[in-house]
Amino acid sequence: MRLKAEIKNHAPITRAIIYSESESTFYLLAFSDDLSQVFDDWCPDLGCAKYNAEVHYGIAEDEWEEIPDALPGTLPHFEQPTVSFRDQAGIIHFISYDEALKRGIVPVREVAVEIVDDPQLLKEVRSLLSRGKTLEAMQIYVRHTHCNLITAQQVIEQLKKTP
Fold this sequence. Notes:
The chain is α+β, with helices and mostly antiparallel strands. The protein has helices at about 45-55, 95-105, 120-130, 135-145, 150-160; strands spanning about 1-5, 15-20, 25-30, 40-45, 65, 80-85, 90-95.
């Protein structure tokens, strides 16, 4: 499930998207058109995400429009199917999914993220994951590393795949 809305009177922030990854994981993303400013917020439910959008950006309930879910391998915070990639200089670029297919580009999201080298933190995160407490694991990782929620989500997904 994904929703989009226009943000008025908060320049340069102009757009918002809410997307969910589970019944208890919702992200509110607000960003400028050129992506020079991006803000993310994790919420446990859709009501919380919409409330935060209204409080912080003035988006009323009736201003949200449902959009299709993101395609596999694409970034969920873009309305159109979009992928990101790093060029040889390390600069991240965003292009349409169709263009990425033509170029044979692997999205950045599919590349392993760097996990902090903190054995105690990783032990605590893995312990929470083993008990099915994904959200708590993400929260602890964010609190200790000060990374954004998207990075924390990528780290958690990578930790779930490795022993």
